[in-house]
Amino acid sequence: MVLRLRVRRFTCEDVSCGRRTFVEQVAGLTRRYSQRTERMRSVLADVGLALAGRAGARLADVFGARISRNTVLRLVDSLPEPQPQVLRVVGVDEYAMRKGRVYGTVLVDVETRRPVDLLPDREAGTAAAWLAEHPGIEVVCRDRAPFFAEGARIGAPTAVQVADRFHLWRNLGEAAERCVSRHRSCLRVTFTESVPEKAPAPAESGSPWPTGHRFADRTRAKHVAVHALLAAGHSRRSIQRQLGMTYRTVQRLADAARPEDLFQGQWQNRKTKLDDFKPYLHERWAEGCTNAWTLWEEIKTHG
């Protein structure tokens, strides 16, 4: 849509004036040197208030208004200052400009939950002077800091001082803790001695890997999972994708009727040629001989 607006142009007859011509401005529609309508300017300013510069510029680009983050911030800075309202309930708290070193005071309108002002320090005199400049304050909500209490007493002597919800619960918790500490001797705890029951011995199994061996338990769990999916009608390729195994592993587990058929290799407790020399090898290892070739030469001499 194209909007055509006809306005009047005025000429200044004063030769010493720096501006020779003047164009009539329509309130609420045009602005001098403006590149966008007042409606678009208002929308972009609202976006800047909500999202600030960088995020506001990205959102404006979505609905076709390509502007920089600096322009968004300039639009926010050009907004008129909000008219101060009569404060009735004020919240006073400290904030850190440099944690542990420099602190200031923030004042909030508790009814609207909007910040009102920032003070450069947290001294009682500064808070009292600010409260004295704002008559009509009925309630001062503060923490337990003594300088805020003194500032509220001096600056707003007729106002009621209350604690905020956080410090109210904190005071209650500390009071309850002190009460329990004073009556600690009244607390008696009776312990009943109980003999721990012995765990049942694992059942004897003919498996070379007893229950509780991590490799055996892992193999048994995989075997159960594969055969459960096979019984449910899944193919081996489907089981491979679901369990994250290789096809060869799924094939071995599926072909084994029981998990004990898979217990083969170095972890199986079967007899080896080193069984007769293990006591000697353990003894030499404990003595500090950790060279495999030396140990091999020594057991060769023992047959």
UniProtKB/TrEMBL annotation:
Protein name: Transposase
Pfam families: DDE_Tnp_ISL3 (PF01610)
NCBIfam families on file: transpos_ISL3 (NF033550)
Ranges where the Transposase IS204/IS1001/IS1096/IS1165 DDE domain occurs: 90-187
InterPro entries registered for this protein in UniProt: Transpos_ISL3, Transposase_DDE
